[in-house]
Input
Amino acid sequence: MYKKLLQEAERENIEVVYQPLGERIKGLYCDGVIAINKNISTTAEKTCVLAEELGHYYTSYGNILDTSNTNNRKQEVKARRWAVKSLVPLKSIIQAYEAGCRNMFEVAEYIGVTEEFLIRTFETYNAMYGKYKKYGKYIIYFDPPGVYKNIDNFKVHF
Output
């Protein structure tokens, strides 16, 4: 997935660079450049950071670093939603379930994201759809996380 996101950045003429950004900052987007903290060691975490920064490219405008500003927080939410939908579409949650994943760690590993990102994904979907969302013959629960397959009347919590 990371390579796919890098290719997308390249198609959009966005340069991706790796810089020391301090402990708390994982990535930044500004004027056609995405900076990723060079201290990030896992591909899964780089994938999540790159997706969020691409989300800013597609959904944000101006300097939104001041999180006390309501408009900036709204733009942060839009970017996160873009990243969530790109990296963890509902279909991938079902695929992880069908592949035998039975907890958040296994699902995150299967999809290729961090467990932290996956938890935020379920929180994001909960805010978007409520406690659950019907998807084909499945019901995906966001709080608590789990998948219910209508045919089997079987529910597994992650």
Notes: The chain is about 50% helix and 20% strand. The chain has two domains: 1-87, 90-158.
